[in-house]
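note to self: dont lose this again. the chain is below, predicted strucutre after it. 470 aa total, dont forget to put it in the shared folder this time
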Amino acid sequence: MKEYPDKKALLEGIKSTLTVAKDGSSVTIIDDKKLRSSVIDELVWNAVFGTDEVKNMARFVIRLTAKKTGNSPASIYEIYQARGEGKIKGFTVPAINVRGLSYDFARAIFRAAKKDNVGLFLFEIARSESGYTDQRPSEFSAVMVAAAIKENYPHPVFIQGDHYQVNGKKYKEDAAKEMKGAKDLIAESIEAGFYNIDLDTSTLVDLSKTSHDDQQKLNYEIAAELTKFARSVQPKGVTVMLGGEIGEIGGTNSNEEEMRAYLGGYLKTIGSIPGISKIAVQTGTTHGGVPLPDGTIAKVKLDFDVLEKLGQIARKDYKISGCVQHGASTLPADLFDRFAKVETSEIHLATEFQNMIFDHPAFPESLRKEINEWCKKNCASEKKETDTEQQFIYKARKKANGPFKKAMWSLSEDVRAKISKALEDKLTFLFNILNVKNSAEIVKQYVKVADVPVKLPSAAGASEEFEGAD
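---
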């Protein structure tokens, strides 16, 4: 793949296909066929692997192009609001964590979506994932919309910040520093087009307190503070969709008293501004599943009654879309049809897709061994005494996505195609069983994409930087 030495070379290299206006406000697509066949591939590669100035310019051009092709990032807020008001129902929105092979993976998602006219799905990345996969918000957003352009997807793109967490331990040590980090990430993400953000302040819950309100107080107060901040930095015409969380995933199952304490306190604290649109609850799952010594995943007893009961209360009494199920991708396939039946608002899917990539028969054995050895060397402190090597590798290899990103993106086209086909088939199954087929019609009905200016990258602020452009 061609790597440009600087931003001027990049603009010169694509000018027969795309030109950027001298003021940097828009692009003109000169050759749509060439854009989708090859130029978008060059742009996304340079957006990820170029020098800093090339990365910034490539991401900027991709975002401008997405505006032109109808693939701008969008908020799913209006759809969740309609669901909270009982206007639409009967489906579960999949939120897909894209950790590795991001461009090929996102393309597979769009292909599966186009096949069945699916519009309701979110691309997401958690705060922790952004670090260990080496995907800052501006990169992640650019890659997702570039995949939409490549696959000629005809709708806006929903991008979500998952688990934007305020860590309970770090908050106790230095509350101001922890809050600044959370707010800085929210601002950076919204600027990058993350118009959907999960505010995870659940680690602040204090179960040593007697009353449910006292247990949830810091959780809802900090969530309210972050809500106010997000509303203060969101672009004109966009209501960022926000989510809250009452139970730390992997802990004790959530109950009605906790949810009412959280939502009651939260809504009172935020006042009249728009609040959260969904609430994550604990039902018995853990992130990534629990690997057994033989390499299989432990069976989970998931309490669908919690999802159904709390979701009904959320919609009836608080007018939000319902409950969110985290840590679901490694659940047995025969459970997935129940999520839509109990009106689960959203389901988060991450680890199984990662497993499908790393464990695919086409994935080179030499690269797999190199990744395993890297885990042993660099993640040794995370290995528990009771872990077998297989259990340790299973839990640690997610952190190889960043260091091996270029190696994975550089796999042969044949290998990537085989892995992508498996991902696409899985997504087709999930879109069907979660009942989001033909949901593009809901997107058309409710989503209004605001004309948000794309900010000039810091490396290219002046109009003369677009020398030779239209």
